[in-house]
Amino acid sequence: MVMTSPDQSISHGHDSLIQHKNISVVVPLFNKRSCIRRALESALGQTVPCREIVVVDDGSTDGGHMVVEQVDDPRIRLIRQENQGPSAARNRAIEEVHGELVAFLDADDEWKPWFLETISGLRTKHSEAGAYATAYEIRESWGHVHVPAYREIPPAPWEGIIPNYFRSCIRCNPMWTSAVAIRREVLDTVGRFVLCPGVGEDAELWARIALRYPIAFSWRIGAVYHREAENRCCEAVFTHVFTTDCFEQAMRDLGVPPQLRPDVEEFLARERLTAAARYVENGQPKVARSILRNCKTHRLYRQKLWWWFWSVIPIKLVSLAWRCRRWFRAVRPRIQKRPAHE
What we know:
By secondary structure, the protein is of the alpha/beta class. The chain folds into 2 domains: 9-231, Spore Coat Polysaccharide Biosynthesis Protein SpsA, Chain A (Alpha-Beta Complex); 256-314. Helix content is 40%, strand content 17%. It contains 12 helices and 11 strands. It has helices at residues 36-44, 64-70, 86-96, 115-125, 165-169, 184-190, 201-212, 245-254, 261-281, 285-293, 301-312, 315-337, and strands spanning 9-11, 23-29, 52-58, 76-81, 101-104, 110-111, 131-139, 145-146, 159-161, 180-183, 215-226. Strands 1, 2, 3, 4, 5, 6, 7, 8, 9, 10 and 11 form an 11-stranded mixed β-sheet that branches.
């Protein structure tokens, strides 16, 4: 692969891509040299091959783009740009792709070999859906592996249209960035990721899509969320409240049905609670309290009280509690593996 200057793309060619399924893969990259190969290999090893993989190197300083260059496959394109954040990187890739479906994969996560096969099956069965998502497993830093539980979705092995997307999000969002594919025409209709620092822009886009389209879901585990990975963007200092401007404008434009509005309001409350929690964890309790004052909820009042409690505790005690929690998570696997006779 020949290097080019920033803001230019590197292409392996497209002439031989017509036999592949019409799915494009978007991979934002920022200082993930240690795991980008794993992500790319998981995308290339699908039982249903993708059409192309567009990697946007968002100003990495660890040489991650050189790892991408070493993966020899004609479907990979590398685009380099100055650091603008993950939303800008994904938006840039969306402008470059050609597939009917756009699948997202973060550089520190990976897909199971059957992920795109599952997505293709959902697309065939539910062509009216705007987005397609699968279950995924979470690998924690202390070694624990688990699958999120969704209370408002029929139990596994069910798959189909989520009955009430916003209600299903109140406890745990069934759409996660590395286990989602969106129809390109849907992205052209609802817009792109909001450009804002921190995290939350993905949930906001999924919500805008859910206002207009059904969301299809499969319990078949299609991806792995590596929480043990280093330099995750969700671990960065949180500097914004969940961005609701685009979503609230979409609510006004479309007119949310009265029967759906309570669930939409609770969804917004959940996102604000998530923002408040991050501010508490990052030592900014005053900002957290300002968010909590404006967070109106009927179903999540316990979580609101919980984070209000932590927001009034002295910062030093909060920091100590969080260090103790991280220590316990680190030593718990060793405690659990200790022989019973010891």
